[in-house]
Amino acid sequence: MSLILLATACQRNSYSTYSRKYKVSYSCNVMDAPFNQIIIRGHFLAVRKVGNKLKTRDSDGKETEIELTAVQNSGYQMGMCGIILGTPTLNNDDVSVWAYDLGCPVCDSESTRLSFDVNGTAICKNCKGSWSLNASGFPIDENASRPLLRYPVIRNGNTVTVSN
């Protein structure tokens, strides 16, 4: 009897790799700029929807605006406050694209977006936490108490789809 209770308790506390807290539905072609940089190891791109535009920002701070079609505008859902797409350098033998939420997992607020640098370090200006985008989104200091929220990614040819 106690063995059944122990097994049930372990299942309830199990860690899930992907977040289901916020809805994500997005796709892009990795042959089109600026998305072509996300398939290079160690390169990341922030993507968020603002009105009827898609705004991107790379690790160098370069921003791009893309006008959305009516179908894209109504269909795209971007998590808490956007997504970070890229190919981590560590723990990624198959060289696949990963997706993290652009929102800070500690602050858990739509108004608290992460910034990131060319080294793949994501930083929250509010709580001062920092995470490694190249090492599965794990915290790299004591201010970050949990890993970044991550979303499942499927790559089919040149199309990358993030959806939960």
CATH superfamily: Rieske [2Fe-2S] iron-sulphur domain
Query: What is the arithmetic mean of pLDDT?
Result: 88
Q: Could you give a short account of the major beta sheet?
A: 6 strands, antiparallel
Q: Counting H and I runs of at least 4 residues, what is the number of helices?
A: 2
Could you say how many structural domains there are in total? 1
Strand order of the largest sheet: 4-3-2-6-7-12
Give the overall silhouette: globular
Residue stretches low in confidence (pLDDT < 50, at least 5 long) are 1-15
Q: Provide the structure class.
A: mainly beta
Number of strands: 14
The top level CATH class name = Mainly Beta
Helix content: 10-25%
Q: Under the CATH scheme, which architecture would be assigned?
A: 3-layer Sandwich
Strand content: 25-35%
Distance between the termini: 36 Å
SSE pattern, N- to C-terminal = HEEEEHEEEEEEEEEE
CATH topology: Rieske Iron-sulfur Protein
Architecture blueprint of SSEs:
Blueprint: H1 2-12, E1 24-29, E2 44-50, E3 53-58, E4 63-67, H2 70-75, E5 77-78, E6 83-86, E7 98-101, E8 115-116, E9 121-123, E10 130-132, E11 138-139, E12 150-151, E13 153-156, E14 159-163
Antiparallel strand pairs: 1-5, 1-14, 2-3, 2-6, 3-4, 6-7, 7-12, 8-9, 9-10, 10-11, 13-14
